[in-house]
Amino acid sequence: MANVKELKQIATRIKRDIIQISSANTGHPGGAIGAAEIIAELYFSRMRHDPKNPDWEDRDRFVLSNGHTCLALYSAMARTGYFSSEELATFRKINSRLQGHPSRHDLPGLETASGPLGQGLSVANGMALAQKLRKSNANIYCLVGDGELQEGQVWEAMMTSAHHKLDNLALIINWNNIQIDGHVKDVMNIEPIDAKFKSFGWNVISIDGHNLEEIKSAFDQFENNVGSPTVVIAKTVLGNGVSYMENEAIWHGKAPSEDEAQKALDEIGESNFENDLIFN
Amino acid sequence: MGKAGREGFGQALLELGSENEKVVALCADLAESVKVHYFAEKYPEKYFQIGIAEQDMIGTAAGLALSDFVPFATTYAVFAAQRANEQIRLAVCYNQANVKIATSHAGLTCGEDGATHQALEDIASMRAMPEMTVLVPADADEAYEATKASAEYDGPVYLRLGRVPVPALTKGVGNFEIGKARKMREGKDATIIACGIMVERALLASEILAVQGIEVTVINMHTIKPIDEEAIIQEARKTGCIVTAEEHSIIGGLGGAVAEVLAENHPVPQLRVGTKDTFGESGPPEELLEKYGLTSEKIVEVTKQAMSKKNNVNV
Ligand SMILES: Cc1ncc(C[n+]2csc(CCOP(=O)(O)OP(=O)(O)O)c2C)c(N)n1
Of B131, B166, B201, which closes a domain? Predict the structure, then answer.
């Protein structure tokens, strides 16, 4: 279990991975960087999981619904030991297990395919129902994008989570205000999101998604909540910590050039957690 | 009159409730129509009502399957195979999730509800999906067996159940096995390959033809995917012409699947009985089947055409 100081270093490592891999292989850096602290807390502190025994029945499960941000997940999986960090270099290349959007094929520890938006919460609900049936204490964490909430299926699933009282499920919204065609409020407004979730019967927690203390305390509250699903509305900055990326929709799905990547790494700073990836 | 396919399903699922502790069921507000209500009443803790939200139901079923349960997700064919098509593709097939999608009210026999509800393209779209197994049982007994076999089989299954009663046809005709066609009648002049409610009609057609001195083989192709290639090729060699009959569009369903096997292995004349690239409409099932040419008389007529094509091939 990592403390806040260690998690900061881990989040920095994840961000550096995202920059290096996307720069070399294409991918979606912006939203992934914004999720670094959340993913760090989940994989390095919060979740009960065992990379050496990925099919452990009572593991907590992480469902990445906005699959395009998978670089953050792959980095965390590599750095917790599901596979070697060298394999990150194969991302989006032919014959790789690290598909552009997640696939379960041959990749133990990857809980579900995603990419087509709006489906993750339904799958997470199914997993949460399963743990209840098995009388397991395992929890399910599901990360979605804010733009993704425009998908109708998410609202179907929101009803299901509350109706079936899935208090073993936490939905985390990567609330960066940005989607491909611009700001979420301009493309299709989804506010007021906290009131919407409340009226759907959810336990609602709003936090700064880069503040590790707030992230920890949100998940503590989730673990103590009984009878309803929890949503953590995590305010994030797309491309957080990289000045030219921050809040710029273009960095949703654009890979940095070599120079841009270097600038990003300089701004993100060094991490004392494991080594940089070395690509040739 | 016998029972409808969906009744056989409902009975088998109920039994699975005690036979297989992993079996659970989901529905999207059509429990009695799809006959999942027997299971729901007996096993309320293993039954999940999802409401009118088929896309969510498929995703939820996938989550249950990925957690080692064997979920049967139930609704009408059009709302599963078509409304939730991409959910089936991603969450079920791409995930190789052990989900059974059991649907009723496919085809014209959906009846008075009309074209909106009559899935005539579902076999085509389900068949095209990697990992998917597609079963279309002929009667209630076969639906029962197909349900049990689906629960045993590890992987996605699309189970298309009849809405209307069909006489018992399959009991005692060998064992049901996924991917293994059942021969219902043997003849040398032509082969009729049918699925679902059209198996009964194919058998009736074979009797009419017999009176006229034409002996046909009738194959019950309950598994559309993986299709029994060996049986098709054998028949093509033996009788030299094939007629397919299905309560589905002639595009992409049983007819399409058989044509693919013939073209690549043993080309012989084939004609397809099914709906002709059209929607259905409201009406009593029997009258609709008549209007859209899904009758035994039509199969008789088409079989003779197929035979004449065979005779015209002078290579
Ligand atoms: C069903 C579906 N429609 C469209 C897309 C294309 N798409 C990929 S990401 C994206 C925007 C997602 O926005 P958001 O959830 O806010 O993620 P972020 O930009 O913050 O990473 C879209 C439209 C998709 N992946 N799935």
Answer: B166
Specify if B177 maps to a domain: no
Atom 19 in ligand 1: residue holding the nearest Cα = A179
On chain A, the residues whose CB falls within 8 A of the CB of B45 are 133
Contact at 8 Å (CB) between A226 and A213? no
The response to whether residue A115 sits with its C-beta less than 6 Å from ligand 1 reads: yes
The encoded tokens of residue A250 equal: 């273009």
Mind telling me how many Å the CA of A131 is from chain B's nearest CA? Answer: 8
B206 and B147 fall within a common domain = no
Please state the φ and ψ torsions of residue B94, each to the nearest 5 degrees.
-65, -35
Give residue B1's pLDDT: 72
Query: pLDDT for B196-235, tens place per residue?
Result: 999 999 999 999 999 999 999 999 999 999 999 999 999 9
Dihedral through CA A251, CA A254, CA A258, CA A263, nearest 10? 0
pLDDT of residue B312: 66
Which pLDDT band, with edges at 50, 70 and 90, does B180 fall under?
very high
Nearest CA to ligand 1 atom 17: A145
Q: For chain A, what are the domain ranges?
A: 4-268
Q: Which of B27, B31, B41, B36 minimizes the C-alpha distance to B9?
A: B36
| Distance, CA of A30 to CA of A134 (rounded, Å) | 38
Residues B250 and B131 in one domain: no
Residues of A in contact with B61 (CB under 8 A): 126
Among candidates B77, B81, B88, which has minimal Cα distance to B118?
A: B77
**B171 lies in some domain:** no
| Structural domain span for residue B274 | 182-314
One domain, residues B162 and B28: yes
| Whether residue B162 sits in one domain with residue B56 | yes
> Best mutation site among A66, A149, A245 for ligand 1, i.e. most ligand atoms within 8 A of its Cβ?
A66
Q: Is residue B280 included in any domain, yes or no?
A: yes
- My answer on whether B141 and B7 are in the same domain is yes
CATH number at residue B138: 3.40.50.970
Say if A57 is an interface residue toward chain B (CB within 8 Å).
yes
Full pLDDT tens readout for chain A, 280 residues: 789 999 999 999 999 999 999 998 899 999 999 999 999 999 999 999 999 999 999 999 999 999 999 999 999 999 999 999 999 999 999 999 999 999 999 999 999 999 999 999 999 999 999 999 999 999 999 999 999 999 999 999 999 999 999 999 999 999 999 999 999 999 999 999 999 999 999 999 999 999 999 999 999 999 999 999 999 999 999 999 999 999 999 999 999 999 999 999 999 999 999 999 876 5
Write the CATH number for B230.
Answer: 3.40.50.920
What is the CATH code of the structural domain delimited by A4-268?
3.40.50.970
Domain count, chain B: 2
Report ipTM (2 d.p.). 0.91
Is B263 part of any domain?
Answer: yes
* Contact residues for A139 (Cβ-Cβ < 8 A; gap 6+): A47, A60, A61, A131, A168, A169, A170, A222, A223
End-to-end CA distance of chain B: 47
What pLDDT does B314 receive? 47
Q: What is the pLDDT of residue A177?
A: 96
Cis peptide before A29 (omega within 30 of 0): no
